[in-house]
């Protein structure tokens, strides 16, 4: 890590950790949605919406700190990118839950649980990784594993699309379900964007 003579604002580390912990909360709500009765989904969506708002607040706090800090722990554009990508994850997860409720989807297709399991694992890894930004230690395995999970998510997504277009569902139901699985895939992509940003930061700081 490069030696610096100037002090650096360290509250960013805590903010990133809090944002990632909130994503774990969101992934747990996604898991809860899988096993919930249709009648219970609206309440889960409300809790997810509250978590998404908490994520927005965390992101705004990071941006405010960025705009008011003269010295930052790493490049400003990387701080912005990391905060934005973390926020995107919560946005996509909240959107997926909201769509399930708004579209009155009674049964999610087989394979969605695998998508959500991948997201839950990526959320855990991301939450574990954020505190390590302080030292840039033990991060290589994190971004390698998240990239592997994103590749797995791609495969699951393709299988889901093939299942949706096999003629079992009517056209309207296909459109509804496809939008849900596409948004979950976007969440997986956003996890990879976070991991790629962390890798970029680590390389610059090495």
TrEMBL record:
InterPro entries membership: PhoU-like_sf, Put_Phosphate_transp_reg, UPF0111_domain
Protein name in UniProt: DUF47 family protein
Gene3D superfamilies: Phosphate transport system protein phou homolog 2, domain 2 (1.20.58.220)
Highest taxon listed in the record's lineage: Bacteria
Family named by the database record: Belongs to the UPF0111 family.
């Amino acid at each position: 890590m490069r030696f610096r003579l100037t002090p650096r604002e360290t509250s960013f580390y805590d903010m990133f950790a809090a944002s990632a912990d909130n994503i774990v909360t969101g992934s747990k709500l996604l898991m809860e949605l899988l096993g919930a009765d249709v009648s219970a989904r609206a309440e889960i969506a409300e809790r997810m919406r509250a978590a998404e708002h908490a994520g927005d607040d965390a992101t705004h706090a990071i941006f405010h700190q960025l705009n008011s800090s003269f010295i930052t722990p790493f490049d400003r554009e990387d701080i912005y990118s990391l905060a934005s990508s973390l926020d995107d994850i919560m946005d996509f997860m909240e959107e997926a839950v909201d769509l399930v409720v708004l579209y009155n989807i009674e049964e999610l297709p087989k394979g969605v649980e695998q998508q959500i399991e991948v997201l839950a694992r990526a959320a855990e890894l991301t939450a574990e990784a954020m505190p390590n930004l302080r030292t840039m230690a033990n991060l290589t395995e994190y971004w390698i594993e998240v990239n592997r999970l994103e590749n797995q998510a791609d495969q699951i997504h393709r299988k889901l699309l093939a299942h949706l277009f096999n003629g079992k569902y009517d056209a309207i139901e296909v459109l509804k379900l496809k939008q849900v699985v596409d948004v979950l895939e976007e969440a997986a992509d956003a996890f990879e964007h976070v991991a790629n940003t962390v890798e970029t930061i680590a390389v610059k700081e090495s």
